[in-house]
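Interim report, section 4.2 (structural modelling).
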Amino acid sequence: MHIIVCVKQIPDPEVPPAKFKIDPDTKKVMPPPGLPPVISVFDERAVELACRIKEKNPGTKITAITMGPGKVSDVVKHALAMGADEGIVLQDKAFEDSDSFGNAHILAKAIQKIGSYDLILCGRQAADWDIGQTGSILAETLGIPVVTVAKDIEVAGDKIKVSRVMEDGYEVVEAPLPCVVTVSNEVGLPRLPSGMGIIQAARKQVPAWTAADIGADPAKIGPAAAHSEITSLFIPTRDTTCEVITADTLAEAAVKLALKLRETKVV
Amino acid sequence: MSNQGILVCGEIAEGKLAPITLELLGIGRKLANDLGQELNILLMGSGIGNLAQEAIAFGADKVHVADNALLQEYNSDAYTAVAAKLCQKISPDIVLLGQTDGGRDLAPRLAGRLGGGLAMDCLELSIDPSTKLLVQTRPVFGGNANARIVSKAARPQMATIRSKTMAPAVRDDSRKGQVIPVEDIDASTVKVKVLERVKEKTEGVKLEDAEVVVSGGRGIGNAQNFQVLRDLANLLNGAVGATRAACEEGWIPMTHQVGQTGKIVSPKLYIAVALSGAMQHIAGCSGSKCVIAVNKDGGANIFKIATYGIVGDYKEVIPALSQKLKELLGK
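Predicted structure of the assembly:
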């Protein structure tokens, strides 16, 4: 079985909001200084799920694939250290500022170049722009089924059983392979890469493919091909300023707070 | 522009139009009036009966009814096929769906199949008066910023809306409309089968539904200390939440995690105890009406989103707060 996991590099969501800065002119987010970017949290769970499938199904191969500018090979190395077997980076100036349709086209082309695959895993959304479309559009582009917001996958021959997260519980669906599954955080904590995993990952070669390498259609990628565009980006203003309650002792401050909550009918 | 009309993908829950559908009809009617276009709704299900008339009373001009045993419950393949076929037939300018279990699955597939432009989880929708384009406002970066999005050329313009963000449609039984059956539902499009649906029960108040949430962070120190938060939550009929750090320490099960990779809560009162307020945590609680921050560090980010704050050790603050509230509430 061959699993392809799509992973994205994002600014670390653990940053305090005060360090989160946007540029309203370019409508972009400025990376927080001094904090290295990380693998998107949902994608990390997709890698985790792939590793669990591999443990139960010997002979499974996992390929981690990423796209983006700069040193995005770090997230592929992270996936390799967790247990992926191979990695590929998709990097080209022409890829930049593509929307979900452009990204799906690029991923589809790269996946077609890889050739054979049984299962494609993506995070349910990237944990930066929270768009939540690429996995589904990728499946439509490849003409294969998609199952969204998965928390578990069980392989049974040429089919999979997927547990999907629902508002009041979950459902189990059966899908034929090949298919795309988008992965939710309910998978649980991803494994930490082992020391040996990190050493082996560091030694692995990660090829970088360009638009020409994968035969991407220039008319389908980049900002000009985007189906939607951002016209403004802003930090919503909060109409509250914090009223700090003080008193001689903390217990007295707590009493004042309780009275205030009752007065304003919050409780 | 050849595309015309607004199409709402309706949802049926327990034999009625779901609350999200009434919100979609409410905003759909408004956009249709602004554009001078018709409001369509697609109802998919089995045994739809008089719900088509209901949809008309709530503002629809045309109701497309796909009534088939295959559509009894949400099935991604079947619903996508029916909705895509209808869109190809009537070429709507705008398609609206709910950000629900079904809608968030259906919308991107439909966009992918039709080549439309989609924004998910929208908080506001409006028509730009000069361009007549649909302007969609949605949260990004876990709600730490909002983006406005338009699709200049891709059609249909598509949006899913977050529930409880739009005013529901007002019923008017004198309204007239047209009911159009959707034919030719093709079972061969269904590749993914639903085997079972499991409803999970939670003990006590469900975190997502709680009106009061008391959350603890790394500063709580250990598992035992969470008891003071539980006591306060119980007193207020609330639920206990936690940050990722506290869950990863093993002080409280992961199911209590509030944040980007945990639960998204929007209670009336969110009491944030000994937590600093990382972006990924704020993503899970920024919809709270009133936030109380209790933290030793007065410079912690959580004070920036709080209504009230106390700077100090929670071990002195929370028990005193609980005791006074108990007295005030007569418990």
